[in-house]
Predict the structure.
Amino acid sequence: MSVAAGVVAAGAVAVSLRGARRELDERTAPLAGLVAAFIFAVQMLNFPVAAGTSGHLLGGALAAILVGPYTGVLCVSVVLLMQGILFADGGLTALGVNITVMAVVTSVVAYATFRGLVKVLPKKRRSITVSAFVAAAVSVPAAALAFTLVYAIGGTTDVPIGRVLTAMVGVHVLIGLGEAAITAFTVGAVIAVRPDLVHGAKGLTQKLRLRVNGELVDAAPEPQPTTPAPAPAHRTRNVWLTGLAASLVLAGVVSFYASANPDGLEKVAADKGIDAKVEEHAAADSPLADYGVEGITDGRLSGGLAGVIGVGVTIVAGTGVFWAVRSRRTDENAPAASSGTPRASV
């Protein structure tokens, strides 16, 4: 099952790398790296849900709406890779399962739900926030359902699948509400200052209507320039710096106050006995294992420093990946531009 999920995940990442070339530009490439770092930071903030269980952000919905579904899959995949290698969080052989469930399923389900809602709701900023809330809330139990399917095929303990399904979906419906609140708040905050940076809000401006002879008619659209004027560099830089500062504070300070209760999967695994054959993580001897810095005895300092390191490593890795993807798109367009042959735009 791990091998099969790994193949699915590798295929999804390959498709996403190609799709991300159409989504990324000079402004959104660094933003995508920031989104990955922000997701890493917020995933450290477990919040209580019920009966000794906690939840945390998955991030697929947030990333898909902010930077696009293909780039969103890559954002969450980068986070999962950093967590597995550096922090012994998420088994390495289970990386394919984690990417498939937490990156692919959440991004696809969330973005499909989001696009469906924004098409029928009024074209206002509030509709974007509402759609983001619902999309995120739906994506989490969808991921729980996908995990249950994976467990039904490759589970190593004899537990009735119906119990696993009921427990997983039930607790993740509650976790989904927390995910929805975080996603809607973040999308709303970005769209309030830079709506042009929100991928899901593109093309959703309301048409101007005029009253002529007592009837409302669509106004003639204003001519648009072939190449939209980029926003001032300092405005994009300010958004990036604000997001980075928020990520560092969340990971370095606020994470100390996160719930210590097991998350939804850990709780269900312990209650239903599906963790009977759990093994020690291959990276358990990492100096950052379990989100602490080896050799530092002060728990608050150790955890905060580990969080800051994680944000830094994730933003560097993510930004590097997304700039490489963006550069590949530029390189592919260069020959067509230099040859003088007309090229259809997508």
Notes: Confidence is low (pLDDT under 50) at residues 224-229, 336-346. The longest helix spans residues 299-339. The first strand starts at residue 47 and ends at 50.
